[in-house]
Amino acid sequence: MYSCLHTHSIFCDGQDTIETLCRRAYEKGLVAIGFSSHAPIYRKTGFRTDWHIQEDRLEAYLDRVRAARRQWEGKIRVFLGLEIDYISGLMGPGDRDYQDLGLDYCIGSVHYVIPPRGAPFTVDDSAEVFEKGIQEGFAHDPEALVETYWDTVERMIRTGGFDILGHTDLIKKNNAPDQRKRWFSLESPEYQRRIKGIADTIGASPVVVEVNTGGLTRYKLPDAYPSGTLLRLLQAKQVPVIITADAHRAEDVDGHYDEARKILLQAGYTHTVLFEGKKNGVPQWKEAALEDLGLRKGDPDP
Length: 302
Description:
This protein is α/β, with parallel strands linked by helices.
């Protein structure tokens, strides 16, 4: 009853082809795989990156995932999605051009913050880029960065246009205890106030929150996104959650799933949800008891 709807292939910053990812997900026993390549951003923002789909490759991506859906029909469900950045004043998941692509779902994510001065930067870049962003963009004030990040997440949720909220507290990636320096306290009254506010905003929205294990897999972080504290706040508001791997390699499509299951149980959750596709444009979700989650053994032949 496990799936992975947060998956990156060679069309963006992943390491494996769509075919390889489908095959490995099936072999590992997942019931579904969803592709969520980083949506193109250059035309909207002027930002040049090597981790988003290039505009001239978008149609090829859409076609390849649709072909994989046909190829793997009856073996594993294949869904077509995008991970779409919300960048204040520039773009977001609700933009009409994304809505018109015929996606099965989309993930709304905040990577970029726009500081009062200097260039926008991504909070999940290297520790050096993170430090430079605080020093140059926020005048050596990490709390100002935290406020800007959560303001941006809140605006994205209120704006809408997406189905799954991606790695909600990504801001903590470069604040982990094993990094060179702790820039801000996750236990401070100010930080706790912000995540309580975010939980309120999420609770009033129709989105599903992903429990994203990508940081555990790729960066050896001590926690999933979101933290156990935030998950407990979300559970109190009965916000539905889905476990995802944020996989950038085929081998990681079920990365740390058992750990994510335990994190959810500790937060008071008894169920997660599985995506069943869209009907008349509305996402269909099915509950799955955490105690029943597991993996079947797949036959590698499509």
